[in-house]
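chain below, 171 aa
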Amino acid sequence: GIEDVGELALQSENSQPISSVCAVLAESEIINHVSSGVSIEDILRGIYDSLADRATLLMKRVEVRGRIAGQVQTDGDKSESQNSSGETMFIGGVAMQRGMVRALEERLKAKVEVPNDCQYVCALGAALWGQVATVGSRTSPSPPASRPSASPSIANPKPSCAIFTARLGTR
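prediction:
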């Protein structure tokens, strides 16, 4: 089943890179690998490696812009971390695939944590945001005096859910 895909990728002996960003072109690359007799394990590992490469690049962009775990911009392109533990949490359904987790860990050179029920994290965050936006938090007996506006702003940013990862702040 689908739950075995990540395990198959871990059995790869020669990862086959998938260089296309476009899903249609990536599919063509995968078909070419299959036609060439490349093992399923090597193709799957190549897919995870490709996704992990892209996710890592996106994470680096976000870090440089100071949007992860309380980082602030300092001199030029450098960012200084405030309240950052450097841990990485992987959320979403893909986080259930051990091959993808391993590919991310290799690129980040760090342990990647996967919470229980990781596939529900984004939905739970959206539900909590909806609750606060419509009726206030559970600790508030009545709706807040000023509800979040429909459009995001610096003073009132809307939460977002990373497809692959989110950095954790120090607790």
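Confidence is low (pLDDT under 50) at residues 69-73, 77-84, 141-171. The chain has five helices and five strands.
thats it, cya
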